[in-house]
Amino acid sequence: MQTGRVRKxxxxxxxxxxxxxxxxxxxxxxRDFLRGAFAAAAAGAAAVAHAAPAPAEGxxxxxxxxxxxxxxxxxxxxxxxxxxxKYEANVQRRQSPGLTQxxxxxxxxxPLQSLFGIVTPSGLHFERHHQGWWDIDPSKHRLMVNGLVxxxxxxxxxxxxRLPSVSRFHFIECGANTGMEWGNVAVPTCQYTHGxxxxxxxxxxxxxxxxxxxxxxLKKGRFVLAEGADGSSMxxxxxxxLVESGQVxxxxxxxxxMLRPENGYPLRLVVPGVQGVSWVKYLRRIEVGxxxxxxxxxxxxxxxxxxxxxxxxxxxxxECKSVITTPSGGQVLMDQGFxxxxxxxxxxxxxxxxxxxxxxxxxxxxxxxxxxxxMDKCLTRFSLDWTWDGKPALxxxxxxxxxxxxxxxxxxxxxxxxxRSIYHNNAIQTWLVEESGEVKNVQLG
Amino acid sequence: MQTGRVRKxxxxxxxxxxxxxxxxxxxxxxRDFLRGAFAAAAAGAAAVAHAAPAPAEGxxxxxxxxxxxxxxxxxxxxxxxxxxxKYEANVQRRQSPGLTQxxxxxxxxxPLQSLFGIVTPSGLHFERHHQGWWDIDPSKHRLMVNGLVxxxxxxxxxxxxRLPSVSRFHFIECGANTGMEWGNVAVPTCQYTHGxxxxxxxxxxxxxxxxxxxxxxLKKGRFVLAEGADGSSMxxxxxxxLVESGQVxxxxxxxxxMLRPENGYPLRLVVPGVQGVSWVKYLRRIEVGxxxxxxxxxxxxxxxxxxxxxxxxxxxxxECKSVITTPSGGQVLMDQGFxxxxxxxxxxxxxxxxxxxxxxxxxxxxxxxxxxxxMDKCLTRFSLDWTWDGKPALxxxxxxxxxxxxxxxxxxxxxxxxxRSIYHNNAIQTWLVEESGEVKNVQLG
Lengths: 445, 445
Fold this sequence. Notes:
Chain A contains eight helices and 23 strands.
């Protein structure tokens, strides 16, 4: 149902005669009492991208009760581990053609325009690999804690999983999410503009527990280095304040089961509110130290080029941001009338407190409904009722978080950051609804 | 990692010499600096069920850096829709051998002992089919609203998905969950005792919205009938109070994506707090009426045989209940020492307010930690620190909900219900930890 949600249905409600027919057949106890509805549907079925070829109107096949209304279906445990419907094959993460040189050092984007609520299905979680992903044998994986500690320790997975754990819902966003938009590239869909964003229930051990077990010197040791086991040698500095807050987790669980291989199985760091690169995958080592390490991935990459030519470093927190996911770029409004404007808001500094929505490019704003529970450093779903009058419209959302920070316009963001950044673009997104109903990505000042 | 969590690791932490070796090699910049740890692991690897054959100690292979630390991994979008690690193949829903005559009218149980947090991965959601499952074409599916309404309506999926939606986390439990235990059958694992239980973020339209659109007579129409499109002709009566509360949803979304075929794709009813049979799958019709329908699935099935020989009917609410999932039946505690007792609690009457845990069969109780957010009619994860002294232990959990109701013992439940029921067993579960560390299902009075 990738674009279906904003399309006009092929047919409106059955007319009075159709309803009478359905009622009559239902009273006769006929099992095909919905055939009137099916007949109505068949006429417009070709408009639905993934529908089977539409039989011609009057085709005797569609006057039969569908097989599923009387037949014997599939058995339990058909495939061991369940999969989405074949009709949802179009809903998948996608690589942006030409964005990267190889598919191992690359990105796949989550299909935000097709998702509901706040949980991202693990099979659709965005990917960002620096040297490809691995399926590491957990019985051989180890986590070492060393550096400014009394006694360095090496943990097996079984040892880690015996310790007290916590489970928390958090978003993860790549620092480069929406990066193409700095250059006004205006990629067509919200999958590509904002799809390096996902949200899961993560389960693991607070890192502070492991540091305490190793006797970490928390007076001198004001930083930790997190190191991954894959060939990219991903290493990131994390300030000790974040660890001491208890929020940083050494996580093995994601959405109820073990992490997926693409997301760091069997162990990754969870650093709520901080850009994804610090959530080191295939985590194998934590070192306690007295200063930042200035590794390649925090000096050459993931830095912000400022207007004065300097690089801004260690800008890890993902600031407050939001995006409308329906209607959004690439979708089509098939007629005038009611639509539920729907989207996601998040902040690396805490809870989202308000989302305003504009349909006229920011002249007027209305407060959207926030879907609870609104959680700390977690996606929040918002919605607003809207009646489209068929004229061009400019849809925008603007989030505010509990620190009082308000998501900036492009003009405001560029005033501070210039135009030569890659990372940390949290500006207000604009979708243009054209008179034809087509929705396009545009940038307003 | 199905049983790994409560097993002792093959080796404890590296000794001082091992740590020195790791440190020395790390300083030399060697990429195989973890080989000490791998050597330590190899000796005990055979104890881990899913490990590859363990090389003999001193085998030159294990002195090599694992390929993943230097090699090029798998590319993004390897399979389109992601899957769990191959090392998790043992974590799957399972059919209870011999429980049902056919696999179409059957059950598969969720592997609760392997799950974390509260979200059930959709690929592991329990199944209960009355005539098998179907993958229904959503472009042809319709929902009819009729009966005591001004104007009967038939909705397409696109029409439903244009309406304002809500997303909410709720548990779903089959009324027959833990049914085998009435007969003291004591099936071995919590997958089979309690695994007809799952929890998801559901997205859909409140049913009351659709009734209002059809002009339902809410004065006379105090009940609705929900009817499924599959061959089992599942029909269930729902009291209008539940619908008027706004909690009953016509749902198409589950954990961020469309419902899975086994769970009713493209449309199912969500009736929070009520037994799963009323969450009608493949939902095709809602009829408004002035009295309960007394259909086959509410007169012959899903009734409780009471001690006086009468049948108790329409006992739909799933009362407050809990179960310890680790340690639980079939698992083995490999040594004395620290364990995190971990489990799930839920109530069809609202939020869980307290869970007490006993390790001595109910003589002494300690309050467990509840993992937030604690949500209405949703699973709540609890945990308690425990040090096992190696002697036999009887593990129990007892939940309380916001109505003040306390989960009963078997003695209390049988006092009211007798012993000839199938459905609605919410008694306290007991796991016996034997001196050998083996955990078994036992019933205490």
